[in-house]
Every structure is written in C-alpha cells, then in structure tokens.
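Good morning,

Attaching, inline, the backbone tokens for the sequence recovery test we're adding to the shared suite. The designed sequence is right after.
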C-alpha cells in the first residue's frame, strides 16, 4: 500500500484502533476499503485515514489536524480513565479486548438523528438510511461524499419527503427532532451546561427519543462520559456477568467508556480469559 504512506501522522496505532473505533456501534458513516483505509466525514470535512503497525495516518492538511485530533479525542488519557475497569475480571477482559477504542466527539445533531434512526434497527440498514439521507439533502463533498444535512435543511420537510430513505416511522421522529433543533427549543450548548440528569430528561422530551437513544446521544453527541446506554447486547452482558443490583454509576465518571468496552466485547464474541459468548 505505498500510496497510503504519504499522509500526515495523526496518532500512534496503540492509541487509536480504527477498526474498533469505527465498528463499535458509535458511528455509521465510516467505511473501509480493501486495504483497511477508512473514508468518512465529520462536520462537513471529508477524511481518509489508515494505519500501519506503528502509526495512524490521514490525508488531512496540517491546518485540519487539530480538528481531527479533537474528533478522535486524542487529548484524553484512556489508560487513566479505564483504571477503574481493570479490577473486576470480566471488565478487565472487556478493556483488554477493546483497547484502542476512542469515543468520538461527534457533531450533536448528526449523533441525535443517527441514533433516532438506529432504534429497532441493524447497523447495515442504519448506514444505508443515513447514507441516503446525506445524498438526498446534504452538501456534496470531495471524493463523492456528502455532509450530514443540518437540522435547518430538514425542518421544513414532511415525512413523505423522506419516503425514499425507507426509514419508516422514524421519518416523523427525525423531522420532529430537526424542528426542535432548528427553532432552538433543543439547544446543544444549553444541554452541555446542565447537570447530566437534567440534560437527559430534556432530551427525553423529544418525540421518539427513549432512554437508549437519549443516552447514546449524550455519550456520542455531547461527550457525556457518565452515560451508560443499554441495548439488547448490553442487557445480555449485564445479565450474564454483573449482579442484579449493578449500578453503572459505580463505574465512575467514565462509565460510558466501560459501556463501550463491554458492548464491543459482547458483540464481537470476545474470547479473552474464557469469557466467550454462549
């Protein structure tokens, strides 16, 4: 892959595992080619990114590297944040299996809309719907990609306008959320300033947003690391490996990072330390 060696170094490979980060269920707009290089976009900025045994490289200009370092949360010490997870045997296995995952700092509106689309859905279909949404209503970007359409672009639409996406009942929920963001009744900066539980309750008031979607949005869209989304995979893992009275708050302010390790381990069928899924 000689053509992949011309990019700018972004991180050490041990800090950022691309496959784990992009395929752990937190995002839906990054795709790998036959060489293992990923292409995607964030905040209207396209990127191609790849790794060798030592480093992660990307095709961004030098001036854009600070944006991408922030997006990949490279300023955070994940080893330090994960120390509370290395005591219990199962959590340690999850951490070792998922080490290299970074919690992306995604654009809040894209995260909210994406996880509304994700409910009662599978990842290939989620990605297909989001790709169609961007192609239909997003700005064209270099490389044949499209930006995620802003809430203001979607707010005036009717559910029928989204029919080609085949998103079903989710179309009305997407548009309702877009209107709330566009008219300011859902303000992301204001949410960041609230105590987490108050922000959670406010997000839950949006039609079509339940506990799981609200927690996913807060974790991936607002970077509220205390959030602990629970879906089918997490319910299974918690039932098998945690006491019935388990409280995610006991994992501390980075409980959401523990959730990501547990989710990735369970969904990938991790076999570390004898904890293979049944």
């Amino acid at each position: 892959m000689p053509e992949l060696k011309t990019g700018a170094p972004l991180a050490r490979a041990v800090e950022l595992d691309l496959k784990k980060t992009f395929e752990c269920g937190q995002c839906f707009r990054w795709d790998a080619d036959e060489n293992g290089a990923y292409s995607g976009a964030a905040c209207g900025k396209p990127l191609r990114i790849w790794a060798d045994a030592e480093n992660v490289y990307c095709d961004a200009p030098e001036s854009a590297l600070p944006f991408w370092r922030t997006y990949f949360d490279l300023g955070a010490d994940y080893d330090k944040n994960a120390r509370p997870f290395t005591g219990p045997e199962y959590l340690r296995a999850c951490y070792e299996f998922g080490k290299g995952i970074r919690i992306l700092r995604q654009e809040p509106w894209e995260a909210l809309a994406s996880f509304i689309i994700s409910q009662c859905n599978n990842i290939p279909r989620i990605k297909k719907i989001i790709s169609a949404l961007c192609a239909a209503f997003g700005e064209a970007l270099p490389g044949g990609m499209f930006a995620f359409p802003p809430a203001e672009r979607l707010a005036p639409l009717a559910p029928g306008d989204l029919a080609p996406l085949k998103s079903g009942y989710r179309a009305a929920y997407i548009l309702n959320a877009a209107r709330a963001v566009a008219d300011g009744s859902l303000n992301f900066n204001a949410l960041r300033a609230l105590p987490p539980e108050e922000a959670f309750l406010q997000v839950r008031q949006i039609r079509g947003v339940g506990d799981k979607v609200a927690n996913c949005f807060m974790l991936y869209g607002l970077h509220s690391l205390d959030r602990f989304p629970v879906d089918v995979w997490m319910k299974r893992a918690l039932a098998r490996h945690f006491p019935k009275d388990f409280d995610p708050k006991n994992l501390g302010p980075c409980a959401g990072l523990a959730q990501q390790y547990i989710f990735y381990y369970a969904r990938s069928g991790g076999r570390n330390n004898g904890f293979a899924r049944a």
